[in-house]
From TrEMBL, chain A:
Taxonomic lineage of the native organism: Bacteria, Pseudomonadati, Pseudomonadota, Alphaproteobacteria, Sphingomonadales
Pfam families: NTP_transf_5 (PF14907)
Protein name: Nucleotidyltransferase family protein
Superkingdom of origin organism: Bacteria
From TrEMBL, chain B:
NCBIfam families for the chain: HprK_rel_A
The name this protein goes by in its record: HprK-related kinase A
Source superkingdom: Bacteria
One term of GO molecular function: kinase activity
Keyword line: Kinase, Transferase
InterPro entries to which the protein is assigned, alphabetical: HprK-rel_A (IPR027600), P-loop_NTPase (IPR027417), Sigma_54_int_dom_ATP-bd_1 (IPR025662)
Automatic annotation (TrEMBL), chain C:
Protein name (database record): HPr-rel-A system PqqD family peptide chaperone
Lineage of origin: Bacteria, Pseudomonadati, Pseudomonadota, Alphaproteobacteria, Sphingomonadales
NCBIfam families registered for this protein in UniProt: PqqD_rel_X
Length: 334, 287, 89
């Protein structure tokens, strides 16, 4: 199972020295599929390995370095676009990790730019970004209304020249989810960077990652999320941090989710925390990749997909949403 | 995956897996003289798969996946499985190649020097490269040429030569005895047939060449040649490279060095015979 | 009064080719292919925060401009701001 191979390589980098060609092939495929190949490349740097694997990993490092520059530049351009408004702009996820120089940013692949702004100023943010060259991705009235009414962000915007997406959030979970994090408290807890932008404090980053892991539907990208959490708790961990994390999780109604995420990341990447029976189900799902990096055990996956949607939307709304999507020819994967 | 094979084209190793036997069998037959990936570790994996288990048997549609994918890529019928495999490998190169500056160009080599040809699809760069191969040049590749950012040298990528429509008949006459794949009719690009590069192209595929001339061929006009200045060349090559941006400053250095060092000409040609004559004349003028 | 400053020269790779100039901007990873007077403009701006009129004066002095046109210069500066090579500061 290549998911387990990947988790082990990240946990104990020396384990890769025992791999043969087939083992490396499966490991690299899983690492690419989980978008963790950059992190893997950093972890195993300097160890003995076949030339072919070393080349693939060197390429991955170059790719994430270019991605890091591009992500920081997007953040900088968003800062310039929003500077005159004076509103606080909080970077989230991968961009925040690299902007703050955290271990979680080492080798991190970064996709869209995610920022958090105060809810009452989100329309002002939208206007400023549109004036600075960002445009709507899809002018679909249904999706648009859905986003604005129910999601925790503006419909995605893309920059017309740079072709990069920005997600402007006003909170960290959809408004329809059962748990409603306290966005104002999150923004108030922000930490200033030298360049005029902000990030969440480390405990806020962990809570955000945990919220996503269990609310984002199908646990896709879950391994990377847990690796982020592992890096954060590893870098900042200690009794004092644990307490701040517990307080932060409780304030946002995410105590159970955060505790589970910390247990799972410990079990996968740390010293092997004690896990519950349900945790084992999650781990099985998280590691379910074949030698081609493809998800296996489709049935488990489907169950997690519905569970995720359930958490995000009340049942009737979910039915309406799925129906609208299906009529447009969309089917959930799997 | 039920069926799989590994092969290496130039410096790049591939693993191709498939839910069906046929595409893998076709690859194994046509690439039988190619080496395997170094250390048994491919650079890229390609997957040809059925969207639903029963679609392996009923109205089989071959979906193209792999390490790097385009969402919503349209599937191909099983009869075009070889084409799907080739498209999958091209896609990995286009989206995933990071070691070399990838030029969407064909290339041939003589005396250690490389002649590269790039242009829009339909400009005839595949056909021209195949014709030059039949006339004694060593084929570097008909689709991609890889520029090493460290040395500036051109590495070959001699995959199967993909010939379309009339070009199939032209090459059947010019290269009698060539090894061919199946005739694929009704593909998104019309009729396609793959020609295996000659033995020399395969045997020498690890030998890079020094770029010496770049051509922008344009089919359908009176034979003519025009000098292309470095700045225009630079802009056109950024458009002909899928990984220029992702190579960041390394790509900038490689391409700047290339356009300063390599003379470039835009050539028009009314038919393949005059194209070959024009190319060989321009090449001769360099010496 | 809007003031303009140019990207830090250490972040720029400027390579003149024939009639055009290539600028690789390390901070953004973007390559710009530019014509005169963009390289000249970036050179006179430097890290000084100049107003439009000051920029025009500096450019005229350094390059013997025959027809200093504030409107055209403002348009160029706006383009460079969108490209990220110049910042309003």
């Amino acid at each position: 199972m290549s998911g387990a191979l990947l988790a082990r390589a990240l946990r104990e980098p020396q384990s890769v020295e025992a791999l043969d060609g087939a083992g490396w092939t499966a490991l690299l495929a899983a690492a690419r599929a989980e978008q963790l190949i950059g992190s893997l490349a950093w972890r195993v740097d300097g160890l003995a390995m076949p030339d072919a694997a070393r080349r693939v990993l060197a390429d991955a490092r170059a790719a994430v370095e270019q991605g890091r520059l591009a992500a920081l530049w997007e953040a900088e351009m968003a800062r310039r676009a929003l500077a005159s408004s004076g509103m606080p702009v909080v970077l989230l996820k991968g961009t925040a990790f690299v902007a703050a120089g955290l271990a979680a940013g080492m080798g991190r692949q970064i996709g869209d730019l995610d920022i958090l702004v105060p809810r009452e100023r989100i329309e002002e943010a939208e206007t400023a970004l549109l004036a600075a060259g960002w445009e709507w991705v899809k002018p679909d009235p249904y999706d648009d209304e859905y986003y604005r009414r129910w999601m925790h962000e503006l419909p995605p915007l893309i920059h017309r020249e740079r072709d990069r997406m920005i997600d402007v959030h006003h909170t960290i979970l959809p408004l329809t989810a059962k748990v409603t994090p306290d966005a104002t408290a999150l923004i108030e807890s922000r930490v200033a960077l030298e360049n005029g932008l902000y990030v969440l404090p480390p405990e806020g980053m962990v809570v955000h990652a945990a919220a996503h892991l269990f609310a984002d539907g199908d646990l896709q990208g879950g391994l990377r999320n847990l690796w982020d959490i592992h890096c954060l708790t590893d870098e900042f961990g200690g009794a004092e941090f644990d307490e701040r994390l517990a307080v932060c999780a409780a304030r946002h109604g995410l105590t159970r989710e955060v505790a589970r995420a910390v247990r799972l990341s410990g079990a996968l990447f740390g010293d092997g925390d004690a896990v519950t029976l349900v945790d084992r189900l999650y781990i099985r799902r998280l590691l379910a990749r074949d030698g081609w990096g493809q998800p296996t055990r489709k049935l488990t996956e489907q169950a997690f997909y519905l569970r995720g949607h359930w958490l995000r939307m009340p049942p009737l709304m979910l039915a309406k949403h799925l129906w609208t999507k299906w009529r447009k020819g969309y089917r959930p994967a799997g | 995956m039920r069926h799989s094979t590994m092969l290496r084209i130039g410096p790049v190793g591939f693993r191709v897996g498939s839910d069906w036997r046929a595409p893998v069998a076709a690859l194994e037959a046509l690439y039988r003289n190619y080496p395997k990936p170094q250390d048994g570790i491919p650079d890229f994996s390609v997957r040809l798969f059925a969207a639903r288990p029963w679609r392996r048997f009923v109205r089989s549609a071959v979906h193209i996946g792999g390490d790097f994918v385009i969402p919503d890529a349209a599937p191909l019928p099983l009869a075009q499985g070889l084409l799907a495999a080739e498209m999958g490998m091209n896609l990995q190169m286009a989206l995933g190649q990071r070691r070399y500056l990838l030029l969407h160009a064909s290339g041939v080599e003589k005396d250690g020097k490389a002649l590269l040809m790039t242009g829009e699809s339909g400009a005839g760069k595949s056909t021209l490269a195949a014709l030059l191969m039949a006339r004694g040049w060593r084929l570097l590749g008909d689709e991609f040429v890889l520029i090493d950012p460290v040395t500036g040298h051109a590495h070959g990528f001699p995959r199967l030569i993909s010939l379309k429509n009339e070009a199939i008949g032209v090459m059947a006459r010019e290269a009698p005895g060539g090894r061919w794949g199946p005739l694929l009719e009704g593909t998104p690009k019309g009729t396609i047939r793959h020609l295996v590069p000659d033995a020399r192209a395969i045997a020498a595929m690890d030998q890079p060449a020094v770029p010496a001339l770049l051509l922008f061929p344009n089919f359908g006009f009176e034979a003519a040649a025009r000098e292309v200045p470095p700045s225009e060349c630079f802009v056109r090559l950024t458009q002909a490279s899928t990984n220029y941006v992702s190579l960041a400053e390394t790509g900038f250095d490689a391409l700047t060095r290339f356009v300063r060092a390599v003379p470039a000409r835009a050539i028009d040609y009314p038919d393949t015979a005059s194209a070959v004559a024009l190319v060989e004349r321009l090449w001769g003028e360099l010496a | 009064m809007t003031r303009y400053c140019a990207a830090d020269p250490a972040t720029l790779r400027i390579e003149p080719l024939d009639s055009l100039t290539l600028i690789y901007h390390r901070s953004s990873g973007i390559t710009h292919v530019v014509d005169s007077p963009v390289p000249e403009l970036l050179a006179v701006l430097g890290s000084d925060a100049l107003t439009l009129d000051e920029t025009l004066a500096a450019l005229a002095e350094a390059h013997d401009l025959i027809d200093p046109d504030a409107g055209a210069l403002a348009a160029r500066l706006d383009e460079l701001v969108e490209a990220g090579l110049v910042e309003r500061c």
